[in-house]
């Protein structure tokens, strides 16, 4: 018996797709665009009829808020078998899951990962996550989240890579490669068998939710969309990301799940995205709530017409698209385009050849020692030392340590949001990690009760206070009106201060927190984010000096909630600083500056930057900037050298500075190294309202240093006839 062409792996993917498409009924086509969740026996009839194309492996839209909804590989094989052997065409289902930061070997939250400024580590962490997830039967990770966020009240700030499109763009590309294993910058013909397809979400501008309130409306200009919010998605697409998720919110009245300009004109036409777009959960149906669709049928027409290929969990495509096409109200061509896109990814994942998972295979890849080691390294490298008056690193011996604070001996609190596959019992708490690291002569007192801990402090040499947010205070649907520490924590630090022993505050959190007072009272402050399964160990690696801190803030830390939004790459205004002027853009009851700027972080050693030199070769459109970075302290360490640029005069006001290069630099004590950044058209141009690159002649400034306040700089220009030259070459 001859097999149908679409089942023949010797043919090209497009030949197989066309053959299959030609055999499909309208209902089967709509079925491929229909994702439902937690498929069980009650759905098997629909699967048999080819009415479901994808299973979302979760019991609710906010599964990350209800951790440990376990994966059941055997159950997926059962439903897959029905799709493959009992449906007319045997098209396999694609199983999607929220694999947000690690899988069972839970990584630090993405905002923490970003603080390591290491695309290599992000790629390594996502490779581990992909292998673990695929072994459990997951084909598709709803990650990375690429929403630039400038408002830390928004709970989902934890899930993204921070406020800067350049850093987040580099990490986006690394995250995609880690998940998908593609070495080409394109969606592969075949994904490696141990990887998953990535999903860049939430397209686009979701992080600009008004008031930091989840799902809220946004107003974003085209200028800001193209230069800030779209940039991370573009980086992911250029790295071959296979799928994109359209967001819940609207921009200026157009919900993103019906935004034809962004989904079709920009994403698919301008950028050439060849994968498929899935809506966020119920977002197509929610077009009726937004008030732009009269009913479910209208919503399906708007969503699919705008470019959303797959409907996540609202059934409106399945129930409406076939009739709409039949009656001539919706184009079959567009329906076919959406189906082709979905099938392309299914073929690329090899699902037609290998639809099932070995239900016992996960043991071989979950929680491997080498995976735990990567996550521990990432956790330690993500932590940002915000203050240290010399109390850190702790000496392992001759110490009596008092450990207190609400998060000192907690497990799932270290995971952070969206860790449905992490298991509490596999986390090392901070107390356990410290106990394991102590020298023979060290004693540890741990008390959860504030008063007891404070009393005990009298008999100790140092007090470590583990404070901050638990995992449930950030993530989806977990927004706050304030970035202040949870109730009682400032008082705890203040009363500990009265004991007159050194205080080390270890702060866990899913967002920048207001640490203004803690800065005054603590002798050292380490911001540890939500550091994942090895988080306790990562903290002790830093506290005891086994790892010299190198994390740098991927987002500005304001002094108070009232300063929000506060971000380093803002425009200048007509009344900018200097600070002594009365009429610049400011408040009268607070300082202008943030508590900590973007890019900031201390080390146990010190670094200086000098000898900046900018050079140009008139034949080449490029400025080369070199600088010398020196470790001026007495121990080896890593700094993150950062390069910022300003376009001084342009047709539109450009940001006061923008990150355009960074490099983690390891230096032995006393060692110097020359670092080099290349600034070409991509680094000095911006995008116009249509997303087209604009490279204008004029003056530019460049700075190199250890954070976004770097002041070691040079000036260069592009002349009207297009020559690149240096005006002031620096030091
Ligand atoms: C809703 C969330 O917004 C999205 O990030 C997630 O991937 C889906 N639910 C699926 O769980």
Task: Describe this protein's structure.
- The chain is an alpha/beta fold and 731 residues long.
- The chain folds into three domains: 338 residues, TIM Barrel (Alpha-Beta Barrel); 183 residues, 3-Layer(aba) Sandwich (Rossmann fold); 122 residues, Immunoglobulins (Immunoglobulin-like).
- Helix content is 28%, strand content 18%.
- A six-stranded mixed β-sheet has the order 11-16-15-14-12-13, sandwiched between helices. A five-stranded parallel β-sheet has the order 4-3-2-1-10. A five-stranded antiparallel β-sheet has the order 20-19-24-25-26.
- The protein is globular and about 80 Å long.
- It starts with 12 loop residues before the first helix and ends with a strand.
- The mean pLDDT is 95.
- The structure holds 1-deoxynojirimycin.
- The site of 1-deoxynojirimycin (NOJ) has 9 residues, from loops.
Q: DSSP strand (E) fraction?
A: 15-25%
Categorize the overall geometry: globular
Query: How many DSSP-defined strands?
Result: 26
Tally of individual domains = 3
Order of neighbouring strands in the sheet with most strands: 11-16-15-14-12-13
Q: Please tally the helical runs, counting DSSP H or I stretches of 4 or more residues.
A: 22
Biggest beta-sheet profile: 6 strands, mixed
Mean pLDDT: 95
Secondary-structure content class:
alpha/beta
The CATH topology label of the largest domain is TIM Barrel
**What's the CATH superfamily of the largest domain, by name?**
Glycoside hydrolase, family 3, N-terminal domain
The CATH architecture name of the largest domain reads Alpha-Beta Barrel
Unreliable sequence segments: none
The CATH class name of the largest domain reads Alpha Beta
Question: Whole-Å distance between the termini?
Answer: 78 Å
Distinct small molecules:
1-deoxynojirimycin
- How much is the radius of gyration in Å? 26 Å
């Amino acid at each position: 018996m001859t097999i149908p062409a679409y089942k023949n792996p010797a043919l090209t993917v497009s030949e197989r797709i066309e053959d299959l498409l030609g055999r499909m009924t309208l209902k089967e086509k709509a079925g491929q665009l229909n994702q439902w969740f937690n498929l069980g026996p009650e759905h098997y009839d629909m699967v048999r009829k080819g009415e479901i194309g994808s299973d979302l492996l979760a019991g609710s839209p906010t599964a990350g808020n209800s951790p440990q909804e376990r994966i059941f590989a055997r159950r997926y094989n059962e439903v897959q078998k029905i799709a493959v052997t009992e449906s007319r065409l045997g098209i396999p289902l694609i199983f999607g899951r929220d694999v947000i930061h690690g899988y069972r070997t839970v990584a630090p939250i993405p905002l923490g990962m970003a603080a390591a400024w290491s695309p290599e580590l992000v790629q390594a962490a996502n490779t581990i996550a992909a292998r673990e997830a695929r072994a459990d039967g997951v084909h598709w990770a709803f990650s990375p989240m690429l929403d630039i966020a400038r408002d830390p009240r928004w709970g989902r700030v934890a899930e993204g890579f921070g406020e800067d499109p350049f850093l987040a763009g580099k990490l986006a590309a690394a995250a995609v490669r880690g998940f998908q294993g593609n070495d080409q910058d394109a969606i592969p013909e075949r994904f490696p068998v141990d990887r998953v397809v990535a999903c860049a979400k939430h397209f686009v501008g979701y992080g600009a939710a008004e008031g930091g309130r989840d799902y809220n409306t946004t107003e974003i200009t085209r200028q800001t969309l193209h230069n800030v919010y779209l940039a991370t998605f573009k980086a992911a697409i250029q790295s071959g990301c296979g799928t994109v998720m359209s967001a819940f919110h609207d921009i200026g009245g157009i919900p993103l799940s019906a935004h034809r300009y962004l989904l079709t004109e920009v994403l698919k036409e301008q950028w050439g995205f060849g994968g498929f777009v899935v809506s966020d959960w119920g977002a197509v149906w929610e077009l009726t709530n937004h008030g732009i669709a009269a009913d479910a049928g209208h919503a399906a027409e708007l969503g699919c017409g705008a470019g959303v290929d797959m409907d996540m969990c609202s059934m409106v495509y399945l129930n409406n698209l076939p009739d709409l096409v039949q009656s001539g109200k919706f184009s079959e061509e567009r329906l076919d385009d959406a189906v082709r896109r979905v099938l392309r990814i299914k073929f690329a994942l090899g699902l037609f050849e290998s639809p099932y998972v070995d239900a016992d295979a996960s043991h071989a890849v979950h929680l491997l020692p080498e995976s735990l080691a990567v996550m521990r390294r990432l956790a330690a490298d993500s932590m940002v030392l915000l203050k240290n008056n010399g109390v850190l690193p702790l000496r392992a011996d001759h110490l009596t340590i008092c450990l207190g604070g609400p998060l000192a001996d907690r497990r799932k609190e270290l995971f952070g949001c969206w860790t449905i596959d992490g298991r509490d019992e596999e986390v090392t708490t901070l107390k356990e990690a410290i106990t394991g690291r102590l020298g023979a002569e060290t004693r540890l007192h741990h008390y959860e009760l504030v008063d007891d801990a404070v009393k005990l402090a009298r008999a100790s040499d140092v007090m470590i206070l583990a404070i901050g947010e638990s995992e449930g205070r950030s993530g989806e649907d977990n927004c706050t009106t304030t970035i202040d520490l949870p109730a009682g924590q400032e008082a705890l630090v203040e009363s500990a201060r009265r004991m007159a022993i050194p205080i080390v505050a270890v702060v866990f959190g899913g967002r920048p927190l207001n640490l203004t007072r803690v800065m005054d009272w603590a002798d050292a402050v380490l911001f540890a984010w939500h550091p994942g399964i090895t988080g306790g160990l990562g903290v002790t690696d830093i506290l005891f000096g086994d790892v010299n801190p190198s994390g740098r803030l991927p987002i500005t830390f304001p002094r108070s909630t009232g300063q929000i939004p506060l971000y380093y790459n803002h425009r200048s205004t007509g009344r900018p600083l200097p600070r002594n002027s009365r009429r610049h853009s400011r408040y009268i009851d607070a300082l202008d500056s943030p508590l900590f700027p973007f890019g900031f972080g201390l080390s146990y050693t010190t670094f200086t930057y000098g000898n900046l030199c900018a050079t140009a070769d008139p034949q080449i459109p490029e400025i080369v900037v070199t600088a010398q970075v020196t470790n001026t302290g007495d121990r080896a360490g890593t700094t993150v050298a950062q390069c910022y640029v300003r376009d001084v005069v342009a047709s539109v006001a450009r940001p006061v500075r923008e990150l355009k290069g960074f490099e983690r630099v390891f230096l032995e004590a006393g060692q110097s190294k020359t670092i080099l950044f290349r600034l070409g058209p991509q680094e000095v141009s911006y995008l116009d309202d249509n997303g087209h690159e604009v490279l204008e002649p004029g003056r530019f400034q460049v700075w190199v240093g250890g954070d976004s306040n770097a002041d070691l700089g040079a000036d260069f220009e592009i002349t009207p006839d297009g020559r690149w030259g240096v005006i002031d070459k620096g030091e």
